[in-house]
């Protein structure tokens, strides 16, 4: 599959891009491309939003237009400025810039109110007394037409008066709504006199106590697009059935009329992607917060060590289509490895340390070995690694009774220490009461380093850290948040939360060059995976590393098997 190759020359096209191109050819919007990304500030952005951001900002960039960041802040009960700020930070981190075009639907409340009054005057909207329950009954079903509300044929004057009094706070929540007067028999339920305003006596994070009626999404969205001169209003598939309503409002008002275009939302395996569910995980303490490195939020992925480049690359590779599908999380990890492999420097780190004593190495002697920072890129240079008599190796790299084809250390066996000598195991020391191996003993062959080593070959190479020089660290290993690929298809999605999604290792031994690294710094720990310095919990003297992703790439294998 060509789209997966790194050297793909041109961006692959998609149906949205084709529609924009067609509008440019026919000069439909005067040659302009103005898009918007319209988050509701009721949670943090997730990787699904990243897909929408890449489409919205990407099209504007490609065609020399612009993309607005507009907060769809019409529901004050769930929104907050914490979310507003977090969303800005995440969009910027992803690499996009709205310039001066930062907007809020709440800035348009007055204009929306006036337009609603206009629709009332034109006989196109009315104040309804039906409580929510009854309104639902009157609405009918997909197979049965709805019934008209008894309030439907109020006079214009009565409607104008009641609407004003709704705004003035005369009525209780739930006792009145403003509805568009369209068609209770429409085959599209969205056109059966949809609600435009609800009474909500809740202060808003931007408008304070000024309003106690709030517009619905359907009423606010298209008109906000129109006010901003949006040309292409791109949204997810669930709004396809709302498009006739989007068009109806704009046509009735006779104002600038953007084109709404829908695409399939991104779903990822082994996680959930709805803000409601993510909020539940946060509120119930099942994760440490919105930025927990296991979360599919941009804040979580960032803290985990993802790069914006890898996420943008992923969004491009999955493409834009109209059919819903679930993308394997391995695909996202594949994009990440691809990026980190090129940019992350290699380091040695022992996560589960075991002492290795080289009996014939002089006490007090320290040599400096040279380690390559990135075999993929020689311009990244080398670094010095202190080597001494007592080292740490990985517990896994020693077996007292090795299985067949075990090429690491075992009694009598030889192994190469990365960037250093070949050593031969001479024995072990055990803790007398438990039988636990506390130390491995070996001898080294001084002739097995550098150019002289050519004649000698051993099958295994293991990593190590000099005990006297090691930096001690906490390392957090992560696994999928959910055990099942599609948790939202389970009867109770929380039952398949992975109890082992976080494993904390303390007393890990890192090579000394990792001392005092800035939060967010990324490395490949040889043979272990990619890691980054945790941005929240890491402190001088107590470094904390997150494993971003392991080295094994299941996605690359799948792709090869499928002949991609
Ligand atoms: P959620 O379902 O997670 O609560 P939402 O659609 O309610 O998401 P909004 O803040 O309204 O969240 O979304 C802002 C924009 O991001 C919308 O245009 C929406 O269509 C898009 N978007 C949301 N989720 C996804 C997704 N999974 N894939 C692609 N685009 C998405
Ligand atoms: Mg929404």
Amino-to-carboxy terminus distance: 5 Å
Binned strand content: 15-25%
Number of domains: 3
Mean pLDDT: 94
Q: In this structure, how is the largest beta sheet organized? A: 7 strands, mixed
Overall shape: it is elongated
Radius of gyration: 31 Å
CATH topology of the largest domain: Rossmann fold
Query: Going across the major beta sheet, what is the strand order?
Result: 12-25-26-27-23-24-13
Number of strands: 27
The helix count comes to: 13
What percent of the residues sit in helical stretches (DSSP H or I)?
Answer: 25-40%
Bound molecules: adenosine-5'-triphosphate, magnesium ion
CATH architecture of the largest domain, please? 3-Layer(aba) Sandwich
Secondary-structure-based class equals alpha/beta
Spans of at least 5 consecutive residues whose pLDDT stays below 50 are 1-9
CATH level 1 class label of the largest domain: Alpha Beta
Structural description of this entry:
The protein has 564 residues and is α/β, with parallel strands linked by helices. It folds into three domains: 15-265, Rossmann fold; 275-345 and 473-561, Ribosomal Protein L25, Chain P; 349-463, Ribosomal Protein L25, Chain P (Beta Barrel), CATH 2.40.240. Helices cover 26% and strands 23% of the residues. The chain is built from 13 helices and 27 strands. The strands form seven sheets. A seven-stranded mixed beta sheet has the order 12-25-26-27-23-24-13, covered by helices on one side. A seven-stranded mixed beta sheet has the order 21-18-19-20-14-17-22, with no helix packed on it. Helix 2 (47-62) packs across helix 11 (308-318), helix 7 (217-227) packs across helix 8 and helix 11 (308-318) packs across helix 12. The longest helix has 16 residues, at 47-62. It is elongated and about 100 Å long. Mean pLDDT is 94; it is low at 1-9. Adenosine-5'-triphosphate is lined by residues 38-40, 48-49, 51-52, 72, 235-236, 265-266, 273-275.
């Amino acid at each position: 599959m060509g789209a997966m190759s790194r050297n793909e020359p041109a961006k692959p096209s998609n149906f949205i891009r084709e529609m924009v191109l067609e509008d440019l050819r026919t000069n439909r919007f005067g040659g302009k491309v103005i898009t918007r990304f319209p988050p509701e500030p009721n949670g943090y952005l997730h990787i699904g939003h990243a897909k929408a951001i890449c489409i919205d900002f990407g099209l504007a960039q490609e065609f020399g237009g612009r993309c607005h960041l507009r907060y769809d802040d019409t529901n004050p009960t769930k929104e907050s400025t914490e979310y507003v700020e977090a969303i800005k930070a995440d969009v910027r981190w992803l690499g996009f810039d709205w310039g001066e075009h930062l907007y809020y639907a709440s800035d348009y409340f007055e204009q929306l109110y006036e337009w609603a009054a206009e629709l009332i005057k034109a006989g196109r909207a009315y104040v309804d007394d039906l409580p929510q329950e009854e309104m639902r009954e009157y609405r009918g079903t997909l197979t049965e037409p709805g019934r008209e509300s008894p309030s439907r044929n109020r006079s214009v004057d009565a409607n104008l008066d009641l609407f004003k009094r709704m705004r003035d706070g005369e009525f209780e929540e739930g006792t009145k709504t403003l509805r568009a007067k369209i068609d209770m028999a429409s085959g599209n339920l969205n056109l059966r006199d949809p609600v435009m305003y609800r009474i909500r006596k809740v202060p808003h994070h931007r408008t304070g106590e000024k309003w106690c009626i709030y517009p619905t999404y359907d009423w606010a969205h298209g008109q906000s697009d129109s006010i901003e001169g949006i040309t292409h209003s791109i949204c997810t598939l669930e709004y396809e059935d709302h498009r006739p309503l989007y068009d109806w409002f704009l046509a009735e008002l006779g104002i600038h009329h953007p084109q709404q275009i829908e695409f399939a939302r991104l779903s990822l395996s082994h996680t959930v992607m709805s803000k409601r569910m993510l909020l539940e995980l946060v509120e119930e303490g099942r994760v440490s917060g919105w930025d927990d490195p296991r979360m599919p939020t941009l804040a979580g992925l960032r803290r985990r060590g993802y790069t914006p480049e890898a996420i943008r690359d992923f969004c491009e590779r999955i493409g834009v289509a109209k059919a819903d599908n679930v993308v394997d999380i391995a695909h996202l990890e594949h994009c990440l490895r691809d990026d980190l492999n090129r940019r992350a420097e290699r380091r040695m780190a022992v996560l589960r340390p075991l002492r290795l004593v080289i009996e014939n190495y002089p006490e007090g002697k320290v040599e400096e070995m040279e380690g390559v920072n990135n075999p993929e890129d020689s311009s990244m240079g080398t670094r010095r690694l202190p080597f001494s008599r007592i080292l740490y190796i990985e517990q896994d790299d020693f077996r007292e009774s090795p299985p067949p084809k075990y090429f690491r250390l075992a009694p009598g066996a030889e192994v190469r220490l990365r960037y250093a000598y070949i050593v031969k195991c001479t024995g072990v020391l055990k803790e007398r009461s438990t039988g636990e191996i506390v130390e491995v003993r070996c001898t080294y062959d001084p002739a097995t380093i550098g150019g002289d080593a050519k004649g000698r070959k051993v099958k295994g190479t293991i990593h190590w850290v000099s005990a006297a020089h090691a930096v001690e660290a906490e390392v957090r290993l992560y696994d999928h948040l959910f055990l099942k690929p599609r948790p939202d298809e389970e009867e109770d999605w929380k039952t398949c939360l992975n109890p082992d999604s976080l494993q904390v290792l303390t007393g890990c031994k890192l090579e000394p060059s990792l001392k005092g690294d800035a939060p967010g710094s990324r490395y490949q720990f040889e043979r272990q995976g990619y890691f980054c310095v945790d941005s929240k919990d890491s402190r001088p003297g107590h470094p904390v590393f997150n494993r971003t992703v392991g080295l094994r790439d299941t996605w690359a294998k799948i792709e090869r098997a499928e002949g991609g």
